[in-house]
Write a structure and sequence with these properties.
The chain is mainly alpha-helical. It folds into two domains: 50 residues, no CATH class; 53 residues, no CATH class. The chain is 66% helix and 0% strand. It has four helices and no strands. The radius of gyration is 18 Å and the shape is elongated.
């Protein structure tokens, strides 16, 4: 299976899962009535929020996976993102920004080339 096909399957599943679960949760309780973890029916939107967050973490990690070349960094960042979420993701981006040369635009951190590394 090609990488492109794998990515289409991954993001297609994430899209359908969120679409179906959000529609289903909406039939159980209005989003406007969601009170967080305060009451039992609120679990539907709490679960939807957690799913949305972890799918967002997964999306960021897929980009990071292609950006990082070595397996130790890929594994370490995966663990950090799963455990710390946005804290780890913002730390990764701050690190990438710090590795840029002063004359480089910030947009270089988004390219697949490894900014700031292996330079002479």
């Amino acid at each position: 299976m090609s990488t492109k096909t794998l990515l289409k399957a991954l993001f297609g599943c994430m899209f359908l899962t969120m679409l179906v679960y959000t529609a289903w949760a909406g039939t159980r309780q209005s989003l406007l009535q969601w009170g967080g973890l305060a009451a039992l029916p609120d679990r539907y939107w709490t679960i939807a929020t957690l799913m949305d967050a972890y799918f967002g973490f997964t999306t960021f990690y897929v980009w990071l996976f292609f950006k990082e070349r070595g397996w130790p960094a890929r594994v370490a960042w995966f663990i950090a993102i799963v455990l710390l979420g946005t804290i780890a993701m913002s730390a990764y981006l701050l690190l990438r920004l710090a590795l840029l040369r002063p004359e480089e635009p910030a947009s270089n951190i988004w390219s697949l080339r490894d900014c700031g590394a292996d330079r002479s």
